[in-house]
Amino acid sequence: xxxxxxxxxxxxxxxxxxxxxxxxxxxxxxxxxxxxxxxxxxxxxxxxxxxxxxxxxxxxxxxxxxxxxxxxxxxxxxxxxxxxxxxxxxxxxxxxxxxxxxxxxxxxxxxxxxxxxxxxxxxxxxxxxxxxxxxxxxxxxxxxxxxxxxxxxxxxxxxxxxxxxxxxxxxxxxxxxxxxxxxxxxxxxxxxxxxxxxxxxxxxxxxxxxxxxxxxxxxxxxxxxxxxxxxxxxxxxxxxxxxxxxxxxxxxxxxxxxxxxxxxxxxxxxxxxxxxxxxxxxxxxxxxxxxxxxxxxxxxxxxxxxxxxxxxxxxxxxxxxxxxxxxxxxxxxxxxxxxxxxxxxxxxxxxxxxxxxxxxxxxxxxxxxxx
Length: 371
Ligand SMILES: *Cc1c(COP(=O)(O)O)cnc(C)c1O
Prior knowledge:
Helices cover 40% and strands 13% of the residues. The chain contains twelve helices and eleven strands. It is an alpha/beta fold. The protein folds into two domains: 234 residues, 3-Layer(aba) Sandwich (Aspartate Aminotransferase, domain 2); 123 residues, Aspartate Aminotransferase, domain 1, CATH 3.90.1150. It binds pyridoxal-5'-phosphate. Pyridoxal-5'-phosphate binds next to helix 3 and helix 4.
C-alpha cells in the first residue's frame, strides 16, 4: 500500500529547524521572563520589517488580532462591516464580538476574493469598515478596495491570516486608514507551535490602541484606561516565530513550486476548476483549492489512495448554526454556497515533495478521466 500523503506535515518543520527551535526554547526558559518583553518586541520589529509596515503588535491569536483591530478602529454597536460571504468563520465572529453587524458580500468565482463592484453596492451610511480576506493565500484586489474605502471614508481591516508574504499587508494608500490581522496558527505559512497572532499597521494611533487593548487596557501596571483584553503574544511563541520567519520566504517558494507543478499537471483535467492567480495579486499558496462538481466523490477517491485533503469550508458562515439568529437562508449567497459544495484543497506545504505532488496530480487526473 502506498504511504500516506498528509494534507500538511506539521512534524517536518520541527525536524528541519530542531536545533534553532530548541535553542529558542532554552533561551526563553532560562530568561525568567514569560510575558511580553524582549522576545516579543524583537519578533514585532522583525515581522513589521517583513511586512514593510511601521508597527506590529503581537497578540494571542488571529481571531483576537481581528477583534482588537476592529475595537481599536472604533468599530462597535450600530456599525456595519463588509465581510466576504466565503471565509473562515473567524472573520465574521470578530465583527460580531465587537457588537457590529456583518454585511456579507459575494466573492469573484475565479479568485474567491471579494468582488469590488459588489462592495460598492453593499455600502450604507452605517458602514464603518471593509474586511477583505486574502483567501487561500491570494491577495484581494486591494487597489480597488482601498479606492472604495477612500471614497466612503471606511477603514480597511484585512484578514491576512492566510497570506504571509513580504511587503504585502497592510495595503497602504494615502487617505485610507488600514491594518492587517495575522494568525500564526501552526498550519499557516508562518506558523507558531501553538496559538499566536499579530496586528500590523502603519497607523500610529491604531497600533497604540491595540497595544493597550491587548494588555488589560493598561499602559502602566494597574492603571486601566479602557476595559481591555488579555491577548498577549507568548514570548515562547515569539521566539519560535523568529526562527520560522527566517525561513518563511524559502518555504513560501517551495509552496509556489508545488502550485506551479499542480497548475501544469492538472491544466487539462476535465471538470476541474483550478485556482487563478489574478494579475497583480500576489499568491502565497497557503492552500491549493480546486473545484469539482463531484467533490465528495473526489475526496473519497483521494482518501482511498492515502491522500489527505481538506475542504475550505464545507459550511459558509451564513448557513452556520452560529449565525442562525441572523435570519440568513440557503440561496442568500449563492457563490459562497457553490464554493462550499465544490471546493477541495489538495496537499501543499514546504515539506511536500514533488514526487508526492506527482502522486496527488495523477490520482486527481485519474478521477477526472473516469467521471
Ligand atoms: C486561521 C484564520 C483565522 C483565525 O486565526 P486563529 O489564529 O486560529 O484565531 C482567521 N481568519 C482566517 C481567514 C483564517 O484562516
